């Protein structure tokens, strides 16, 4: 974690001041530290350069730990590994291709991983969908390029947006996720690609961030709002920490789509998957916002894995539908 962040970090639970016991550091970075809140005695840490600011009072479902378990599963089932990894890539279905890329990436073969991801993406998403989603990233990149402030990216996941920003922008970037597992993978990839110098990695839950009030000038996310249950409190927390812009790439389902709507309701995601509902939460949290660069594209469900039987990359859509992709541009008034 880069040292400049110390000035804006606080206890995510009570917002108390932090006491830092740094045991391994370089000129610009903290590699290992134990961190205690001076008010509530909350305990946090930096491990292998990754700041871990997770609290114990919020429940989380870390799907990235399940991805990490894939390697162990393959070791226990050598026949399965052979059918996934030792056959021509183009003989696999798109979901199996994606997870083959995950395995290659975990083993450090970035070139093979990128090849698998690329062919999988082309099979799962239409050219129109890819153009529409890429245009949202282009819009976001152009918007943040107007400032040289550090960028905090929420729910970075596999760093799709971060990779674009590192390629096209000079800004410092804070990569965040509530999963330490995916941040460990990201750190390895970023270091191997020579992209780590401008990056810090923090694990926290966006409902309880470790940032001081009004400390963030640029906050971004790519589809990070689409899997949040009860987004009202989260948007209030983001409003607390932002003194500038929040730029979110999002997608919305038609409210009359009954087949996908049943899955959305079951997953508790109606407040983020429907445009008017999410925008109402933005308004109630105090944001001044605009919907930019909207496009409507037909989306089809990807077939499940065959080698990895029943595996999926995206839980939605379960039925063909038309998604509205757009950029939500919010400012803290």
Can you walk through the features of this model?
The structure is a single chain. This protein is an alpha/beta fold and 333 residues long. The protein has three domains: 3-52, N-terminal domain of TfIIb; 63-124, no CATH class; 127-332, Vaccinia Virus protein VP39 (Rossmann fold), CATH 3.40.50.150. The protein is 37% helix and 24% strand. It contains eleven helices and eleven strands. Strands 1-2-3-4-7-6-5-8-9-11-10 form an eleven-stranded mixed β-sheet, with helices on both faces. β8 (216-222), α8 and β9 (242-252) form a beta-alpha-beta unit. α8 (231-241) packs across α11 (275-284). The relative contact order is 0.13. The model has no long low-confidence stretch (mean pLDDT 92).
Descriptive keywords:
333 residues; alpha/beta; N-terminal domain of TfIIb; Rossmann fold; 3 domains; 11-stranded mixed sheet; 11 helices
- Biggest sheet features: 11 strands, mixed
Oligomer: single chain
Number of domains: 3
Order of H and E elements: EEEEHHHHHEHEHEEHEHHHEE
Give the helix/strand class. Answer: alpha/beta
Report low-confidence residues grouped into runs of 5 or more. none
- The CATH superfamily of the largest domain is identified as Vaccinia Virus protein VP39
Spatial shape: globular
Strand arrangement within the widest β-sheet reads: 1-2-3-4-7-6-5-8-9-11-10
Strand content: 15-25%
Mean pLDDT: 92
Helix content: 25-40%
Distance between the termini: 30 Å
Number of strands: 11
Number of helices: 11
Radius of gyration: 20 Å
């Amino acid at each position: 974690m880069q040292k400049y962040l110390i000035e804006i970090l606080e206890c995510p639970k009570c917002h108390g001041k932090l006491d830092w016991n740094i045991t391994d550091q370089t000129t610009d970075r903290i590699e290992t530290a134990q961190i205690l809140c001076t008010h509530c005695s909350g305990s946090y840490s930096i491990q292998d350069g990754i700041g871990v600011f997770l609290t114990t009072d919020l429940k989380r479902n870390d799907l990235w730990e399940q991805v990490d378990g894939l390697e162990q599963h393959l070791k226990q089932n050598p026949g399965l590994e052979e059918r996934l990894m030792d056959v021509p890539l183009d003989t696999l279905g798109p979901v199996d291709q994606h997870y083959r890329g995950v395995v290659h990436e975990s083993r450090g073969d970035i070139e093979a991983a990128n090849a698998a991801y690329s062919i999988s993406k082309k099979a799962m998403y239409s050219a129109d969908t890819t153009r529409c989603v890429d245009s949202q990233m282009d819009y976001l990149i152009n918007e943040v390029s107007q400032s040289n402030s550090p960028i905090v990216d929420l729910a970075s996941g596999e760093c799709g947006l971060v990779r674009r920003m590192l390629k096209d922008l000079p800004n410092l970037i804070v990569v965040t996720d509530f999963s330490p597992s995916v941040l460990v993978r990201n750190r390895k990839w970023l270091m191997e690609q020579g992209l780590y110098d401008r990056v810090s990695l923090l694990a926290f839950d966006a409902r309880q961030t470790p940032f001081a009030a009004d400390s963030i000038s640029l906050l971004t996310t790519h589809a990070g709002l689409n899997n949040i249950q009860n987004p009202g409190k989260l948007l209030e927390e983001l409003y607390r920490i932002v003194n500038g812009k929040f730029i979110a790439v999002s997608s919305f389902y038609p409210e009359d789509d009954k087949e996908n709507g049943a899955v959305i309701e079951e997953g508790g995601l109606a407040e983020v998957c429907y445009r008017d509902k999410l925008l109402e939460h933005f308004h109630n949290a105090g944001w001044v916002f605009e919907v930019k660069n909207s496009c409507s594209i037909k989306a089809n469900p990807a077939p499940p894995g065959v080698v990895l039987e029943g595996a999926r990359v995206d839980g939605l859509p379960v039925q063909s539908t038309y998604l509205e992709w757009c950029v939500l541009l919010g400012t803290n008034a």
